[in-house]
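ARCHIVE CARD
Drawer: 12
Card no.: 0347
Subject: one protein chain, sequence and derived structure
Cross-reference: see card 0346
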Amino acid sequence: MLKVALVGVNSQYIHSNLAIRYLKSYTKDLDYHCELMEFTINDRIENILEAIIETSPDVIGFSCYIWNMEYIGRLTGLIKLVIPEVTIILGGPEVSYDGVEIIKCYDVDYLVEGEGEETYRELINALIEGNKIQGIKGLFYKEGSLVHYEGARRLINMNALTFPYDTLEDLENKIIYYEASRGCPFNCSYCLSSTTHGVRFLEGDRVKAELQYFMDKGVKLVKFVDRTFNARKSFSLDIWKFLISLETRTSFHFEISADILSEEEIILLKTAPKGRFQFEIGVQTTNEEVLKKINRGAKYSLIAEKVMKLREGDNLKLHLDLIAGLPKEDMVSFKKSFNDVYALRPEAFQLGFLKLLKGSSMREEAEENKMIYSPYAPYEILVSKYISYQELRELKRIEELVDKYYNSGKFSNVIDYMTGQYNTPFDFYKKLAEYFIIKGYFRISIGKNEYYKVLINFFNDYCPKESFEAFMELLRYDYLYFNKKRGMPDFIVKKISKEEELVLREKYSLKVKEEYIEKFNIDMDRFLNNGEIIEKTSYVVFNISNPEVTAIINNL
């Protein structure tokens, strides 16, 4: 019996590979043995090599993306050195736009272009039966020094796909990837979705049944990989209503276009249980001239309006993205985009950098925009006529600090206060990045507590001295909220006296093993509710086991 190993080399351990699951599921009726194997790019390559070879496969298939292509190139070379007779198949977006060059450069036998389910099925069936492979659409293969291509394959009917998850697979507390549609209604020049037209959907009842399966299995998070989940209003409304109506601990992550959200959808989403939905919204830029240049038919004013409406319910997690290096966006324009999006107060704010992907029209326009990009995956921009290399490096450093201090959520109050000491949030992060350079922090690994101490030293050097006491109170609050209450660093000074603590524990029946009490010299309740700094004694009761505040007490 033909033995096939389908290999996913993921970017992180918590990720799973949807593509190889589709391939196995779509061929489950064929007479062959298929084993799924998943690793990460952080694994030692010799360990992956050993694990694959131990399965004694006849065929090995790899799912190729910008984050793993270089790694897979080395891995396939090693595999062929050890078992030269094995058949290797490559597939995925990273090999779908220059198949001839890829199959020439890599020591592999077949390359599957585009959507791979039907091509893979026909190829495996041919290998099982010993039939000729000529005529299989979407396939590249070698005969001696010649490369043959059998022509493009038509896009698959989504409802012909089989459910990709095995009923025996343990999904409890896992992050699962799922798609309810393929394609995108937009034509953004930086995106591979612009290379295909139209959007195809699974039937709504099928989607509901499969999502119910995940919930019954105790899945922690279902991440939809649909490029624009709300591309069809009737579809998104139907699925969202279904998920809102259920009692479940599973959360759901969607990538949406905010500007096309209807009032009906927004009203519905405000009724979702808190934490049920996460929305990723690609703003990319707030400069409407740039939006037009990249074929993104949206007005930022409309995006901002819809985002603010979504925030009103205080029940959704919003993740907003910008892309640095877009054509017609210089540093002045990007700074404005940064401040505009920061003002929307998303739960996560991601600064991405333009990647000139194979097959995208942005790559075709590189010469026009004088864009120089890395020849190595992920093909990230290095310099253009709009932004310099040095400016992009500066934004890289700012991105690192935004991710650490803003996106982690563990410094939220003190960072809010610190950004208020500068003209704009961008100015604050720029100055903080300069400080990190001076101190050499970008070149070393610093511990969790050190990130707090860095802020103290930075504030002392670059912020008003009269604001230092309020700053320290907020830093103490953030630290105590998110960190263990034992073995605390020296800069977290305990201010409550034993007598005060005893009075509060007796008065409010607070247990030593469950609640931690601290005294603050500002009214924490007023600050947390409206950002006011008022000198007034307050006592905060922290839960020892979880990051939450049990109570704020303003007097003994």
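Annotation on reverse: The first strand starts at residue 3 and ends at 10. The chain has 19 helices and 20 strands.
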